[in-house]
Amino acid sequence: MARMATETRAILYGFWLSSCSWRVRAALHLKDISYVERSVDIVNKRSQLTDEYRVINPSQKVPALIIDGATIIESMAILQYLEDTRPKPSLMPRTPILRARMREICETVVSGIQPLQNVGLLSHFDSTDQYKNFTKYWTERGLYSLEDLLQKSSGQFCIENQLSMADLCLVPQLYNAVTRHKLSLDKFPTISKVYETLLEEKTFSETHPENIKQKDM
Amino acid sequence: MGDIIEEKPVLYSYWRSSCSWRVRIALNLKEIPYDIKAVSLIKGGGEQHCNEYREVNPMEQVPSLVIDGHTFVESLSIMHYLEETRPQRALMPQDCYKRAKVREICEVISSGIQPLQNLIVLIYVGEDKKKEWAQHWIMRGFRAVEKLLSSCAGKYCVGDEITLADCCLVPQVFNARRFHVDLRPFPIILRIDRELENHPAFRAAHPSAQPDCPPEVAK
Q: How far apart, in whole angstroms, are the C-alpha atoms of residue A39 and residue A47?
């Protein structure tokens, strides 16, 4: 009798260019959680807007993670769910104050920068140039905030010398800043230094968009 | 043994800032007494840009909370810090899946809606376009929230206990009304908002009850 193959691995709905997807991909990698990625083309095909995908994520965005028989959306909710259910290796510092510093950095990225440079904003502008000016402006503004925060909290990584959710949020956003928005990090020495260190980490090199793009092709 | 005098927490807040409001609700729900230092986002181009406030928060935003000898920024981070250090009157469920549901709603609001209808962004978008722009992003976000609530809401956003999701929802509903968003497509959101309207912690945190609320608005 033929058996239906059921996917027991986690399923990540993401896109190679999506910074939010990269955060989750890096967390899954770090925590050594077995998963398969299904590509949702948010740029050209706009597959996030289909009825089919809306059932998975009513927000019509990536990422969405199917894990433990449930669907979770919003990268910060996913990251913290992974931390709650698979606490080792930990992505959070030990003390409440350091965790607050971590979340300040995360929220500065996820609500202070990312939504204001999202590719989904393009159709709301009269021209591509207007869209580019908007997204570049808000990204740079956010980088000033991050530089302030990192000056107080960083060591090797965002929070002292332990890799945390703050780093998972920082790297994808800086990749966007440098590649899409053509911003120089010269004005942000602390950010630059931490970013260079993080890019050497296996977690980021193995989950890097350039690697995922290859797999999509 | 010496006496430890605990300084009362200080919240830098603007009466109508939804992010400040979230934190006011959480502090009230946890029965943490605090002082408010009002920061006008309007007066003189915005008091958040003045040197005195920049020393509190170089990012020139509200809210900031000074507590336990430290200054904290970012409303969701502040609320999680309060939850971790003052676990009485818990604002997060124990169950991991329900915690994820709370955070989904918080994030859809705090990253999917609020930043796009924030005062400074609307100034950038311009007077002509700002109402339509704000309405679009609020409606889009509320469609997602309503869908999420359809499977996790009980009396409140997630089950029958008040959580951080409710702290984020109520201020966003107020903003939706300010921008004349038609809320009829969102019956669950409306029901929860109505339920919480008369809760003492929410009433005390309401913009109209704030020390910097203009007298013509306060009732």
A: 9
